[in-house]
Amino acid sequence: MCKQPNANAMIRKILKYTGIILLSVILLLVVVILFRQDMSYDAPYPSVSASSDSAVIARGRYLVYGPAHCSDCHGDPTKADAIKAGQEVPLTGNYAFNLEVGTFYTRNITPDNETGIGNWTDPELARAFRYGVKRDGRVLFDFMPFHDASDEDLTAIISFLRSQKPIKHKVPDHEINLMGRVVKAFLIKPVGPSGEVPHAVKKDTTAAYGKYMTWSIANCRGCHTPRDPMTGAFIGEEFSGGSDIDGFTTANLTPHKTGRIYGWSQDKFIQRFREGRKIEKSPMPWNSFSKISDDELKAIYNYLQTLKPVPTKIEATQMVAKQ
Predict the structure, then answer these.
(1) What is the rounded end-to-end Cα distance, in angstroms, of the chain?
(2) 95 near 73, Cβ under 8 Å?
(3) Contact predicate 229/100, CB 8 Å
(4) Burial 255-269 (b: 16+ CB within 10 A, else e)
(5) From the centroid of its chain, how far is CA 109?
(6) How far is it, in rounded angstroms, from Cα 313 to Cα 242?
(7) Residue 319 has pLDDT above 50, yes or no
(8) Rounded to 5 degrees, what angle do the CA atoms 207, 132, 28 make?
(9) pLDDT tens figures, 262-296
(10) Which residue from 134, 129, 179, 178 is spatially nearest to 155, judged by alpha carbons?
(11) Pairing of strands 244-245, 175-176
(12) Contacts for 55-61 with beta carbons within 8 Å, 24 or more apart?
């Protein structure tokens, strides 16, 4: 008869200490997450320096406003109509990406000293492109596909960025939510080259050059290969499509009969790029891609034909915005 109160007291004591332990674990986890938000990483500085050569700058301009489609993300979003019309708008940033882990604003990449890249050295810019590490050592979320871009193309891009008119335009800080902070603390690390980076890549119509363009410059692989929505890691067959981007489903580009371009001739493939955007709000950077040269489109087409055929059926209705 006298043991019941003692049992209740014991239960309360167990619950009390369990609560204290759980609270301590949560507090410790919060401290670790906060501490890891500004982790500093070491990464080498590529031997890349901007050039004043007009041909190099011209190549950089072509890449930025063409296949590398930098302008689609970093172009002034208030000039959306000009971007759609294929015009070269200032690269002042401020385009917002609303993701599961937060809202990210593209940076001002004009050479303004206060709000742009004017105070960045060429090696610092090259390291950010190639390794995803900022000038202060903090990691960049892996949005850009240039880790394996050749020294020659990286030099061209940086040379063109340096040649722009500096525009003072402050961009808001990223708004990373709790989930995003957890991901940043434990899952996001610098992403470097997949192997030895070439000094230059021969520009021709071969599948080899097409692979370079789709993997390292135009980022076709980045959108058309399934990826983990949290970390961005590739988790599916190459170019098999099925990723959800802003309410659109990316196409299967493999040569399987279920593929989007199955049966297309090279001429039809090129013609489709020349036609530009047909579906409003499509995330495909059609206006930039419409500027890709015929030879580079031939190379891309030839490479896509060499892919492993993957039977991923994506209905045409999935290529339009979801209601």
Answers:
(1) 66
(2) yes
(3) yes
(4) bbebbbbeebeeeeb
(5) 15
(6) 9
(7) no
(8) 135
(9) 999 999 999 999 998 888 888 899 989 999 999 99
(10) 129
(11) unpaired
(12) 56/155, 56/156, 56/159, 57/156, 57/159, 57/160, 57/163, 59/153, 59/156, 59/160, 60/155, 60/156, 60/157, 60/158, 60/159, 60/160, 60/161, 60/163, 61/88, 61/160
Q: How far is CA 301 from the centre of its chain?
A: 22
- Please state, rounded to an integer, the average pLDDT across all residues of the chain: 90
Reading the block at residue 222, the tokens are 């980045």
Q: Are 160 and 64 in contact (CB under 8 A)?
A: yes
Identity (one letter) of the amino acid at 215?
W
Helices 294-304, 266-275: inter-axial angle, 10-degree rounding: 120
Q: Which domains, from first to last, does the chain contain?
A: 54-186 (no CATH), 207-319 (1.10.760)
Tell me how many degrees the CA angle 227-307-151 measures, rounded to the nearest 5. Answer: 70
Above 60 in pLDDT, residue 72?
yes
Higher pLDDT, 3 or 254: 254
- Cα–Cα dist 64/119, whole Å: 20
Q: How far apart are CA 66 and CA 298, in angstroms?
A: 15
Q: What is the pLDDT of residue 322?
A: 39
Which residues, 6 or more positions from 75, have their beta carbon under 8 angstroms from its beta carbon? 83, 89, 90, 91, 92, 95
Compute CA distances 116 → 51, 156, 171, 237, whole Å. 19, 18, 9, 38
Instruction: Give the DSSP letter of residue 139.
Output: B
For the record, the structure tokens of 166 come out as: 């500096």
Q: What is the mean pLDDT of residues 253-259?
A: 96
Evaluate if residue 22 carries a pLDDT over 60.
yes
Tracing tokens 């015929």 back to the chain, one arrives at 294
Measured CA to CA, the distance from residue 147 to residue 143 in angstroms comes to 11
Gap between the Cα atoms of 8 and 322, Å rounded: 56
Q: Which residues contact 93 (CB under 8 A, 6 or more apart)?
A: 74, 76, 105, 106, 107, 108, 109, 169, 171
Q: Which residue has the tokens 């759609």?
A: 84
Compute the distance between CA of residue 173 and CA of residue 157 in angstroms, rounded to an integer.
Answer: 25
